[in-house]
Known about the structure:
Layout: E1 2-7, E2 10-13, E3 18-26, E4 31-39, E5 46-52, E6 58-60, E7 68-73, E8 78-83, E9 92-100, E10 105-107, E11 111-116
Parallel strand pairs: 2-11
Antiparallel strand pairs: 1-3, 3-8, 4-5, 4-9, 5-6, 7-8, 9-10, 9-11
Amino acid sequence: QVQLAESGGGLVQSGGSLRLSCAASGSTFSLYDMAWYRQAPGKEREFVAGIRWTKGNIRYGYSAKDRFTLSRDVAETTIFLQMNSLQPEDTATYYCKAKTTSYEDSWGQGTQVTISS
């Protein structure tokens, strides 16, 4: 199983930036995919960005395009989410998710991102 630890959330003003990190540990040899999701109060959890671990293919959800950038550190088994031009509607708890080659999913505890107007 894979364990995940997110960090980097916080409170920033509209137009500001944040960089989230998600470090994987445990059975990282079996990583297939890692991704960021977010969930705002009263809303469903939505996909933000993800990466196929072996090939490095990156994909983005609609809310992330042109403002967010996913990157990774293979040696540290960590992914990052650079978020720029943040708006109040980006306020949410951001979760990291890992999928193994056995298609087992693991979730992190989440990190809160709050954007003030």
